[in-house]
Amino acid sequence: MSSFDIEIDSLLPADSPRFTLDHAHVRALAESEAEFPPILVHRATLRVIDGMHRLRATALRNRRTISARWFEGDEQAAFLRAVECNMRHGLPLSRDERKQAALRILRTHPDRSDRSIAEMTGWNATGVGALRRDTADPGARPETRVGRDGRVRPSNTAEGRRMAAEVISRNPEASLREIARQAGISVGTARDVRRRLAEGQEAIPAGRCSGGPAGTTPASTDEDRTRLGRAPDLAHRITLFDGLRNDPSLRLNENGRLVLHRLRTQLRTTEEWKRLAPTVPLHGRNAVADILSACANDLREMARELRCTEDSLAG
User: What is the Cα–Cα distance from 126 to 244, expressed in whole angstroms?
Assistant: First the structure.
C-alpha cells in the first residue's frame, strides 16, 4: 500500500506491547538527518500501530505531518500487527512487555498454539503454556489450536500421539512430515513421539489423555498395548539405521552401501510379513513359519558373529 502524509495531531497513541517510550531514542532520532519510513496507522481508530518513536521525533523536528500507511482490520488484529512489528525491528521489547503481550494474545486469540504465540512475542513456548494454565478464563484452553503453520490441530494431542505411534509401527521409515500429516499433529510432536518410542517410553507422556478428566490417562485396550509395545522396538531399529546411514565409512564405499541397502530391505520386509502373515492359507502356515524361523536363526547367528568380532577387537 502506498504511503501518504497525515496530520500528527490527528493521531492517537499506539495500542502496542510497549509500556513506555524511550525518550533518549526519540531525541536521537530527532537529531539525526535520516528520513523515517512511514509509520503504520489503524484506519478505523487512527491509533498508531508501529512508529511512535518516529512520530515523537518528527514532532520534535517541528513538523506537522508524517508519512504513514493504513492498516485495515479490527483492533485485535491491529495489536497482533503491533507485536509483530515491534519484534521485527526497532528497540527490543522488555521481558515484562513480551510476557504481557503473550498474555493478551492468549485472551484474544486462545486458539493460537503456545509455539505460535511464543514465536510472535519472543516469550518461550513453555512460559506461554504456563500462562495459559494459570489464566482463569476457560476460553483460553480451547479444544483446537492454530499452529505456526496455520493448521488447526487438537489442543490435546494424546490421540494424535497414539496415531503417530501406529504410523511409525506400520512404516518405521516414514518421515516426520508424513507422520505428522497422517496423525494430525505438528512435526515437533511427531519428532517427540519417535524419540520417546526409540527410548522405550510410551508415546503419550504420563498425565495426558484424549478424554475424561484432566490429568488422567484412559485405560489402554489389549490391542493398544500390543501395538504401542511393539512400536518402541521398531522405532529403535530405525533410529539405529539412521545413525548408520549417516556414517561416511558405510555410505562412501560400495560394500557399506550394500549393507545399508540390505538393512533397509530387512526393515521393510519385517513390516511386510506382519501384514502378509494373516493372509497365508492354513495349510501353508507351518512351512512358511519354518522358513522364517530358519532365516531368523541365520540372522541371529550373523548378529552373534558381529558382536563377537566387536568384543575381540575391543579386548
Answer: 34
Q: Report the run of H or E that residue 41 belongs to, with start and end.
A: strand 39-42
Listed in order, strand segments (DSSP E) in 142-197 are: 144-146, 152-154
**DSSP-derived secondary structure letter, 97:** H
Tell me: the pLDDT tens digits for 235-259?
Answer: 667 777 777 887 888 878 888 888 8
> What pTM was computed for the model?
0.45
| Residue carrying C-alpha cell 526393515 | 267
CA Rg value for the chain: 29
State the Cα–Cα distance between residues 75 and 81, nearest whole angstrom: 10
Distance CA 131, CA 99 (A): 9
Q: Which residue is listed with cell 485495515?
A: 72
Other beta carbons less than 10 A from residue 123's beta carbon? 23
Asked whether the beta carbons of 39 and 50 are under 8 A apart, the reply is yes
d(CA 293, CA 280): 16
- Contact call for residues 174 and 168 (beta carbons, < 8 A): yes
Neighbours of 298 (CB within 10 A): 10
Is the separation of the CB atoms in 89 and 53 below 8 Å? no
* Cα dist from 193 to 45, 64, 160, whole Å: 47, 59, 10
Q: Which residues pair with 65 in a beta bridge?
A: 7
H or E segment at 180?
helix 176-183
pLDDT digits (tens, 9 = 90+) for 150-181: 555 555 567 778 888 888 888 888 888 888 87
The Cα-based distances of 85 to 19, 74, 146 in angstroms read 15, 16, 21
Q: How many CB atoms lie within 10 A of CB 53?
A: 22
